[in-house]
Amino acid sequence: AQSVTQLDSQVPVFEEAPVELRCNYSSSVSVYLFWYVQYPNQGLQLLLKYLSGSTLVKGINGFEAEFNKSQTSFHLRKPSVHISDTAEYFCAVSEKGNEKLTFGTGTRLTIIP
Amino acid sequence: GAGVSQSPSNKVTEKGKDVELRCDPISGHTALYWYRQSLGQGLEFLIYFQGNSAPDKSGLPSDRFSAERTGGSVSTLTIQRTQQEDSAVYLCASRTGGARTDTQYFGPGTRLTVL
User: Fold this and answer.
1) Would you state the pLDDT for residue B35?
2) Is A59:A48 a contact under the CB 8 Å cutoff?
3) How many whole angstroms separate alpha carbon B33 and alpha carbon B10?
4) Is-contact B89 B42, C-beta < 8 A?
5) What's the pLDDT band for A2 if we cut at 50, 70, 90?
6) Hey, are the CB atoms on B40 and A105 less than 8 Å from each other?
7) Mean pLDDT, range B35-41, rounded to an integer
8) Among A5, B8, B80, B106, which has the highest number of CB atoms less than 10 A from its own CB?
């Protein structure tokens, strides 16, 4: 069965500093990987997804993530954060041929002015 | 265009009562999912509908939970004899019926509080 681990439940970062949110997954088959963002009092929104091809995926709002098969990781990065990036970020995985998304427990990103 | 809508946005109920949560998917989306977001638990898959196929109910936590989708559009999640541990935000998502890799679009959720 697939699983996702987000080790950091909270990450405080100063404004304009870089950030990396970590995500590791476990699966016995090929996977698709996703990052979703949940802004305060809003629904989930897709940031980016990895399906195949280039391991570096670029998403909305300046975020990118890199798929590392050997380390079973899909860490999310942004070179310079803004106050508006304050939100909860969820990593998710689905196995090829499986309809279900399995989510991590989320990382709350707090931007410090 | 209109996104996924859910109603009510908040629901407070007493232990033992039944509740119904509604989801209106994006028009034309044939795939519909229900998830539950509990404090400290992340999001967990509950049930999946695709067109006229039998739903995937493998994520439903107990037989008190059921869901239906009428006319391939609106879906209702029903929780019978609610328990305090059912308190959570229930999220609905839909996507087109095409590739499984198509993006799931999420609604704002229904926050259920069981007293």
Assistant:
1) 95
2) yes
3) 19
4) no
5) confident
6) yes
7) 84
8) B106
Going by their DSSP bridges, the two strands B110-114 and B10-13 should be labelled as: parallel
pLDDT number for residue B99: 65
Query: What are the tens digits of pLDDT across the range A28-79?
Result: 888 899 999 999 878 899 999 998 889 999 999 999 999 999 999 999 999 9
pLDDT at A108 over 60: yes
Token pair 């990065």: residue? A77
pLDDT of residue B98: 67
Please say whether the beta carbons of B47 and B32 come within 8 A: no
Q: What are phi and psi of A78, to 5 degrees?
A: -145, 130
Instruction: Answer whether B101 sits within 8 Å of A32, measured CB to CB.
Output: yes
Cis peptide before B108 (omega within 30 of 0): no
Q: What is the CA radius of gyration of chain B?
A: 13
Residues of B in contact with A99 (CB under 8 A): 31, 33, 48, 50, 56, 100
Mapping DSSP to helix (H, G, I), strand (E, B) and coil, where does residue B54 land? coil
CA distance, residue B15 to nearest chain A CA (Å):
26
Residue in B30, B92, B106 to test binding to A, most A beta-carbons within 10 Å = B106
Q: Do B106 and A44 touch (CB under 8 A)?
A: yes
